[in-house]
Every structure is written in structure tokens, then in C-alpha cells.
Write a structure and sequence with these properties.
By secondary structure, the chain is mostly helical. The longest helix has 36 residues. It is elongated and about 100 Å long. The termini are far apart.
Amino acid sequence: MSAASVVHLFALVTVAAAVVYRAATWREDHQAPAGRALTLTMVHLFLLYLLGWAPVYWLVHDLLGRVPSLPQVIQHVAWMAMSFHAHQFVIRVSATADDLRRRLRFSRMLFAVALPLLLIGYVIGPLRTGLPIVGPSGTRDPGVLFYDLVWETHNIIVLVQILLVRWRSAAIERRYLRIGVRLMGLGCLIWLVMLIHKMAYQTVVSLGYTPPYEENGVHGIQFLFSAPGVCFLVIGMTIPSWGPRVARYWHRRRAYHQLTPLWNALEPVRTATPLAVLRTRNSRLRQRVIGIRDVLVGPLHGHLCESTVQLARAHAVRSGLSEDDAQAVAEATAIAAAVSSRISGGAGPVPAVRSPELRRAPDFDAETAWLVKVSQAYRRSPVVPAVLKQLSSR
């Protein structure tokens, strides 16, 4: 099997996986115009690569009665439809409300003009000449050249439009949607180079020259552009969906380990109730966060001292820490002092000294982030042992 065939199969499998992934999220996205456009982009991309695979092409050619180049026409219509829906997607996620309708109208008009021109080019070109397929070395027939220039020009205009949106994608608020549009822009840039080369190659052939290489096919150089382009496109089209999930998974995985210093420090004062064995990382993280808070409002509550918090915060501020970092160091110091008091059997603060109000967050992720900050301060901050030493010397 040639390198081009291997690359084509790899791209086909990659796009098929992306289509299956989008199908799994169809219920979530199909009601949104941008979600529908993105799904249709992938479906047409899959059809494009499926018909570009030689065994499938000739099978469809036989099933359609061997009409000259008819599967190739379907492939090029799918290419134009893919570009159209990709253009619709980036417009909907990036254009301003005032600019949205004008850009959508331009995209639709461009497709509406190009599609009948393509069919006209097919009649005066591949159908008239009886070609079963426009070969990898092109043809010198002007009708075939007109046919090729129609769909290539449409796609070039669309790719340029998408690239213009890519440069303005910083206005997109959602981080992974912004990353996805930029990756799609990179894929479109590669495909734009491919289409410009394709157009130049076919024009040179139509003028009577014969380039020393094939443009596409198993011996062509199109695969040098096609594979990386489709990879960037597929990643860009799917990362808005799976990117936040992967980021959340790794964030929580890192948070679980970062909570270890605080979790271990509270071990001597935790209740002896056996903890259930949890399998998922998210469940174990939730158990660890809840367990830390239970200790702070339970066994350690009477040993937490507001004056310790104030003293540690003053030390932290003098050392140049920000307000948030100083508060985290202050809470870590108060927890360390409370653990020491509880282990030594000492009494809690005297009634005149009120227990401190430790910071709480409104949701689980924010609560986890804050406890991670306290845990890291407990392990790393030099203020914690310095204040503890000062308290023990009193």
C-alpha cells in the first residue's frame, strides 16, 4: 500500500471517529445552529474522504450506472458543503450581533451561486468528455478546467473567510472554543495552500504543460497537505466539547495530590470511622475535600483561634504576599496550631477569643481550589513554622 493510501485511510478513520463522537453529543448540540453546522461539517468531511478512497469510489461508480465522474461530483459537492457549514459555524461563534446576519447571507449566497455553476461545469466538462474520473495528472479540456475552478474557487474564498475569523478569535470568550477556532484556522491554512497548488497545477496542465509529478492519487503529493490539514480541523471541531472535560479531569487529578499535605496533617484528629473504598478519582477527591471540611468544623473547631489567623496574616502580608495568599497562609497556620493543640490535649481558645471564619467557596471546584491553596501553604510557606514557633515560645 502506498504512503498516500495509508495517509488517506488514517484521515478517514480519524474523521469517522470524530463523527461518532459528535453523534454521541448530538442531543446536546443539535438545537443550537452552531452545533448543527459543526456536525454537518464533520459528516460532509467524512463523505469527502470516503468517496476519495479508490475502492469506495469505483463501487459507487458502478452502483450509479457508471455515469461519467458522478461520484467525483458528489465528492466535490460534499467538499463545498463542508466548507459552507464550517463557515457557518465560525460565523455563529465569533461574529457580533450586528455583523452576524450579513456574514451568514454572504456565505449562503456564495454557496447558492457556486453549486449551479458546478453542475454546469460538470455537464460541459467531465460528463461531455465521458471521463470516469478526473485523473491525478489533470486534463487539458477547458470544460473540465472550468468545473475544477468552480469548486476550488468557492472553497478558497470560504477558507480565506475562516482565516479572517481565526485572527479575530480572541473575542471568543470560551477558552476551548477559541482554541478550536484557531486550530480550524490552521487546518484551513494548510488546505488553502493545497487548493492554490491544485488550481495552479490544473491551469498549467490545461495550457499544455506536463508537470513532473502527479497532483493527487496514490503517487500524488496532495497527501502532504491533506493529512495534517484534516487533523487540525478534526481537533479544532471537537476540542470545544472534550477539551473542558479533559482539563477538568487533569485539574482534579492534580488537586487530589496537592491536598495530600493537608490531608495527612489532619490524620491524627480525623474520626476513626472507616472510609469507603472509592474507585474513581473524582469520588476520592470529593471524599478528601468533604473529609477536610468535616475535621475543621468538627474535632478542630474548638481549637481554631482567630488571633493565630491574624498573627499569621500579618506575617504573610509583611513578607509581600497578596491578600489571597496571605489568607491561605493564615488558615494553614491556624490549622497547624489547632492540630498541635488537639494532639497535646490542650484546651481550645478561651471563650473571649472567637473561632475564625475560614473561607468557604460556593461550589465544589472553587472549594477544592481554595483548600489546595491552603494545603500548599501548609507545606511550603515559611510563615507557618515561624508563627508556630512564636506561639510555642509564649
